[in-house]
Specification:
Chain lengths: 461, 461
């Protein structure tokens, strides 16, 4: 009998996170402060707790996962590694397709892996309250879930248009005891200023980040900090438990290394979580093709330059060395809301610069069509973001068939689509289309960063 | 370390279903045909395929699960048995609380266990299309999922008010390739007749059943059959895989038998699935308290008589020997939609008559409050139906604390609440209340069955 679920015992859960910063052939470039010189850790202390800033700056290869964090992760981890045998049979491919099922977390995606860790470190540092922003709501739900278990207040600024259009995610945050407000709100200077100028604005992730940071920094008691769900080094670090588990699980079925690894990318965290532990092997000589998949509607990796840019739209963050479409770039409202980000995690960006991973862009319609095949064979409903990884896994399985090669393909099933049925309905009724970013528009949005410091000028490491 | 997830290997999945009809101290009374005499199997052949009618009538103790059905169930089975250690710690109870997690199925509940089996037997019998009804949509989704994998057409009549109010479940059926129409519809005589008299009716489960059966029976080619998601013997049989797995999993952590078993009840199938394999032990001398929990708003077991009644509102089914509130009883629109059923599975009903299980009724508000504690400790979002089992498990754990007894409590986590957030929002905003059925209303609804044959008149077995 072919084993379809490879389950790891709780006692075998990884006890350390893997930090790619220790092994990147070209060390990470520094983030830059407002004056354009490398950022001092101290400058982040009003925004993040010191213990997380240390992790953000660390180049230590292995970082212990505190037992108390594992104790929370056990609620759903180790996550199953599954084999998509029914899809394989349908494709008549000699390839084996494995996927790490991160949809089993209570919030429905990989996001709680870092939400729990961040909430725990903040609590340990004496923080009482976390603020954050959320677009479609996945991240806000994950942080609400973590704060509710750990005993922190949680305040989520949710982009107004999502707040109005996606009431379910908002209720999810509420059942986990978080306060969720529409952004722009009347609760911050940034929010009030924007509302006075544009009372009918649908809001944006950039505005919501500004509000969340402002509330954290404005707390004179020092008991509030801000939390981010992707992009940063420590966030990606927390996600590496995904790949570390997958390695052990593949070993259980006799796979020494996968041939192809795939993950969808928005800010980069689910992709990094699965891929980074295998990147270690690749850096040390293993032959593995590693593919981050982005939407053609937001082609950060496939069409953006590697440059210094802000992480948010409003320009409140340090300048980060990354692939970017320009911080003012507003992606089309595709249904894979989690992939609508103008930039990319610096660690992922540097891995691309070093030739270790090979990004690829997929159309929305192709991704939904792949989801329909998945529903017909494996049976489950993937998140619109996840369909990008599925579409690529299918392509790679068909390529293996053409080549007659028994490849092992591994991808990250980053979340379920139960809260994303509206997009499916639109696809089924023929109401969706593809979108390609016109060259002119890209040029225009990159104008905004043309005078920023250039990565080449900074010493690496 | 306390083990929180007890995982069964795929190779150890139960290979047979357990049929309680073989062991009930008092054999089941027969269902009755329109003329009031015991039903002949032949009379069901236009509605169900012969192989399932055989199962419905069988008194064989063990029935083989075909390998092809297991091959489909492996997509999510064996389901995890989990231990609610965080809830235990919060309650400071010496009891151990285990729960079988049926929310992990692709449709989000225990329903696919029988949907897959029914679809498979129908396909084997040469049937091309299944019709069914659905209220809130759980069952319709499960059957859509199963038919899509097995290759059957699926037509779901969804109660109009749910069709309009719960678009997500409707879309879920569509992504699994089912046709979902609002009932009453223009596609059947029953539907047209009702629409001509009451064009604005919100519909009812009774009407939807009538339409689904009519479409199945009306297909002159004989290629269409009807499928029911609870109540019937073969449906409960298919669910016993839940309890059979749980037995093996408890043995893995050294538990010979649980002291208390709990499940919520609407038609009875998730409760029966967990409890029946343990009822076998109880019948053979084991001391186990077995509690089906129903809502006070629909108190079938705690206030209804054991009587012959129709399974549907319109009176199209045979008369079944069961606890009932009268087939015309329309329960209040509580959010646990799956528990809004006037009757109860005959097998569960007979087990109550034989003193083997002890039903209990819980208020809606108490159940939601229990869910909030669950969210704060275990972290996951239960279906409103499931909250009834959780509320009872908490009560039993607190009782064990009072008694100072290290009891083992086992309940069925029948489904997740991700599609039921509207009820939670109403609870959080204080918009929910409890409802007790007035004595007068109960009397009135029981009027309708006063002249039906009485169970006492029929020879048992």
């Amino acid at each position: 009998m072919v084993c379809k679920k490879i389950l790891l015992d709780e006692k075998d859960i990884p006890k350390k996170w893997y930090n790619l910063a220790a092994d990147l052939p070209t060390p990470l470039l520094p983030a830059l402060g407002p004056d354009g010189s490398p950022l001092e850790p101290k400058m982040l202390e009003k925004v993040f707790p010191k213990n997380l800033i240390e992790q953000e700056m660390s180049t230590k290869r292995w970082i212990d996962i505190p037992e108390e964090i594992l104790e929370i992760l056990y609620r759903w981890r180790p996550a199953p590694l599954r084999r998509a045998v029914y899809l394989e049979q349908h494709l008549k491919t000699p390839a084996r397709i494995y996927y790490k099922d991160e949809s089993v977390s209570p919030a429905g995606s990989h996001k709680p892996n870092t939400a729990v860790a961040q909430a725990w470190y903040n609590k340990k540092f004496g923080i009482k309250k976390l603020t954050t922003e959320t677009g479609a709501g996945q991240w806000g739900c994950a942080l609400a879930f973590a704060c509710n278990l750990i005993g922190l207040e949680c305040k989520v600024y949710m982009v107004r248009i999502s707040f109005d259009q996606k009431p379910l995610r908002k209720i999810m945050m509420q059942v986990w005891n978080a306060k969720c407000v529409a952004s722009p709100s009347n609760e911050t200077n940034a929010g009030r200023e924007i509302l006075s100028k544009m009372p009918d604005t649908p809001g944006s992730l950039g505005i919501a980040i500004s509000e969340a940071i402002e509330e954290a920094v404005a707390d004179k008691s020092g008991a509030t900090r801000y939390s981010l769900g992707s992009v940063l080094n420590h966030v990606l670090l927390h996600q590496t438990i995904i790949g570390l588990e997958a390695k052990k699980q593949l070993a259980m079925v006799g796979v020494k290394k996968p041939d192809v690894i795939i993950g969808c990318v928005g800010g980069g965290s689910n992709f990094a979580g699965l891929a980074f532990p295998f990147l270690y092997d690749k850096i040390h000589g293993a032959k593995i093709k590693i593919i981050p998949v982005e939407p053609t509607a937001c082609p950060t990796l496939t069409r953006g330059p590697f440059a210094y840019d802000f992480g948010d739209t409003a320009g409140m963050t340090p300048l980060l060395p990354m692939f970017t479409l320009g911080h003012g770039f507003i992606p089309e409202p595709i249904h894979a809301g989690g992939l609508r980000y103008h930039g990319m995690a610096p660690l992922v960006s540097q891995a691309i610069m070093d030739g270790l991973v090979e990004p690829r862009a997929y159309d929305q319609l192709k991704c939904y069509a792949s989801a329909m095949l998945w529903l017909k064979t494996e049976g489950t409903l993937p998140a619109p973001e996840t369909t990008h990884a599925i579409a690529c896994a299918i392509d790679e399985a068909l390529k293996a068939k053409k080549e007659g090669k028994k490849k092992v393909i591994l991808f990250n099933y980053s979340g379920h689509g139960l809260m994303d049925l509206a997009g499916y309905a639109k696809f089924l009724s023929g109401g969706l289309s593809d979108y390609y970013l016109p060259e002119e528009d890209l040029k225009k949005s990159l104008e905004a960063i043309k005078n920023f410091p250039k990565p080449a000028k900074f010493k690496r490491g």
